[in-house]
Amino acid sequence: MHRKTILQAKEDLKQKKYSAVELTEAVYQRIDDVESKVQAYIHLTKKQALEQAREADRRLSAAEEAPLLGIPIALKDLICMQETRTTCASQILDQFISPYDATVVKRLKGAGAVIVGKTNMDEFAMGSSTESAWHHPSMNPWNLERVPGGSSGGSAAAVAANECIGALGSDTGGSIRQPANFSGVTGLKPTYGRVSRFGLIAFASSLDQIGPMTKTVADSALLMNVISGKDPLDSTSADVERPDFMKSLERSVSGLKMGIPKEYFTSGIDPEVERSVQEAIKTLESLGMEKVEVSLPHLEYAVATYYVIACAEASTNLSRYDGVKYGYRSEKNDNLLDMYMNTREEGFGEEVKRRIMLGTFVLSSGYYDAYYLKGQKVRTLIKQDFENAFQESDVIVAPNAPITAFKLKERVNDPLKMYLSDIYTISANLAGIPGMSVPCGISKSDGMPIGVQLMSKHFDEESLIAVGHRFQQATDHHLRQPPL
Amino acid sequence: MSGKFNIDNIAQLARLKLTDAEKERLGGHLEQIIEYIDQLNRLDTEDVEPTSHVLPIHNVFREDEVSQSGATPDYLTGSPSHQKGHYEVPKII
Fold first, then answer.
1. CA closest to B54 among chain A residues
2. CA gap A67, A82 in Å, rounded
3. FRET pair for A322, CA 20 to 30 Å: which of A17, A250, A253, A306?
4. Would you call B73 an interface residue with chain A, using a CB distance cutoff of 8 Å?
5. Tens digit of pLDDT for each residue in B10-23?
6. How far is A125 from B81, CA to CA, in rounded Å?
7. How close does chain A come to B67, measured CA to CA in Å?
8. Counting runs of H as helices and runs of E as strands, what totals does chain B give?
9. Which domain holds residue A130?
10. B1 lies within 8 A of chain A by CB
11. Which of A206, A298, A339 sits opposite B52 (nearest CB)?
């Protein structure tokens, strides 16, 4: 049962092959069986989940319809859920109990979902491997010595290991797409503004976006239908009509133009990754898509731009953790300033401190214009690159990461090297466009999954879903299971 | 790049009481990262407008209507120290 996709489970529940309680119990049984190896979750919400499942069964027996009725979903632990802990994988928020539901949680509950638990992540979503998590790292279900990617590594691992039926993650510079890629699942970062950020603990507010991480593109389409849409509680959520993303599954992709950005296939890319992505491009051509070369000339500046902007925003967002309003407070607190400084010193991990320091520096007097303003200007150039590329193409097809999942501890001591593993995903956040990772092969050299990245214009997730779904109908990469 | 980065000053601004070992380690990393970021100077951005927000959203207004929000006790319970409906902090002066 735990291996089912959302759409399969939905159909089975409707036909009463099993109940929502049975499905939820099967998922918890699977968690009992594999969680000691994978460590995908920070904490489980079993009691509430079983109540939600019983309620779903009542509604199912009354022949009620709701998009996610009785479906077990996992949440990245920076999405607030009322009366449960939301830790951000940080000591500073370890005991924080959210007084309200994030808008996406409200929508999931309204759609009948069963919330299984809160998944692991890099502390405050700052990282690419889920190793900066305060409680414990997570392992890649395909090879327990390797990372699941990050920062939504717990959600990716939970989906890959069938410890949930679907999950939500968040993506600031690739944190949905890169772990989806590393763990062999589907991950969609929506357009900035498509999904409300209310109740999402902020990292970099102009880049953060919540999105689905699932076993198939079709499941992501269904989750998008539930979580998208304008929210008065998030003034940056866009006032655009939400299409029925399920309709995109029926769309033909014949005649669509796929832009291949030449800068993504240069030095530094693993030959196995390049081979798989090129094969995916051939498959898309066989589905009738037309290949055109496009150029995104400022790609090489994306990582530098991102770290200026994301860290600047993080340094201000994280100033709220001062030991007063919530979370951890240091015992060493003779006066107020000492209390602030000791609380933050003890409560944050190294990567978070590094980024707060970098962000504080680029915003500091004398350096603001040279770094922060410069970064914002280069961001404009990166955004314009995409506008130009979308003049000639409908969907950009590229690798997601230059490498496959690396080994635990391999990169933790070299932050710059860790940052560079996000080089292919960061631009979409800077430009605000949607991006999706779809499994497209297994590396012959290390046996790890490889994904292909699809990107489209603002608010055109429909094209990504159409192309991704056709690709999954033509291939079986997404059906492969890790050897757990 | 050396000399640009006064780690004590930045740590004070960031309200982080770093240990000497951390200053050494983070300082080294930050110098390396800032040097990497300096490659942005290769680009001429004289006539480029900065982007702070990707969508054309400016002021977002709504009707000023009364609605239900969380109760004060719900918000105070997360605080490490509170008394009589207020946050409690160490002595300020």
1. A432
2. 22
3. A306
4. no
5. 999 999 999 999 99
6. 27
7. 12
8. 3, 2
9. 6-256+462-479
10. no
11. A206
Letter for the amino acid at A111? A
Q: How many domains does chain B have?
A: 1
Residue B1 scores a pLDDT above 50 = no
Cross-chain residue pair B50–A350, CB shorter than 8 Å: no
Residue B19 is part of which domain span? 1-43
Among A307, A315, A374, select the one facing B14 at the smallest CB separation: A315
* Encoded amino acid at A141, one letter: P
- The two beta strands, A395-399 and A449-456, are antiparallel
Q: What are phi and psi of A20, to 5 degrees?
A: -65, -35
Q: B91 and A335 in contact by Cβ < 8 A?
A: yes
The answer to whether the Cβ–Cβ distance between B80 and A305 falls below 8 Å is no
* pLDDT at residue B59 greater than cutoff 90: no
Q: Decide if B68 is inside a domain.
A: no
Q: Is the CB of B2 inside 8 Å of chain A's CB atoms?
A: no
The residue of chain A with its CA nearest to that of B29 is A415
Residues of B in contact with A376 (CB under 8 A): 50-52
- Answer whether residue B88 is part of any domain: no
The residue written with tokens 């007097």 in the block is A365
Which residues of chain B neighbour A238 with C-beta distances below 8 Å? 55, 57
B-chain CB neighbours of A381 within 8 Å are 43, 45, 48
Q: How far, in Å, CA of B17 to CA of A281, rounded?
A: 51
Rounded to whole angstroms, the Cα distance separating A154 from A138 reads: 6
Paired strand residues for A72 = A114
Q: Is residue B10 part of a domain?
A: yes
Query: Which of A474, A259, A301, A275 has the alpha carbon at shortest distance from A388?
Result: A259
A435 in Cβ contact with A189 (< 8 Å):
yes
* Number of domains present in the structure of chain A: 1
d(CA A207, CA A305): 12
With CB atoms and an 8 Å threshold, state whether A376 touches B36: no
In a domain, A453, yes or no: no
B39, part of any domain:
yes
Helices (H), chain B: 7-13, 20-37, 72-76
Residue with tokens 């009691």: A47
DSSP label at residue A369: I
Residue A24 lies in a domain: yes
Question: Measured between CA atoms, how close is B58 to chain A, in angstroms?
Answer: 9
The per-residue pLDDT for B3 is: 64
Contact A406/A145 with Cβ under 8 angstroms?
A: no
State the virtual CA torsion across A137, A140, A143, A144 in degrees, nearest 10. Answer: 20
Q: In this structure, what DSSP letter does residue A342 have? A: H
Q: Residue A247's domain is classified under what CATH number?
A: 3.90.1300.10
- Whether residue A354 lies inside any domain: the answer is no
Which sign does the torsion angle of CA A347, A350, A354, A359 carry?
Answer: negative
Residue A191 lies in a domain: yes
Cα nearest neighbour of A319 on chain B: B14
Q: Max CA-CA distance within chain A? A: 70
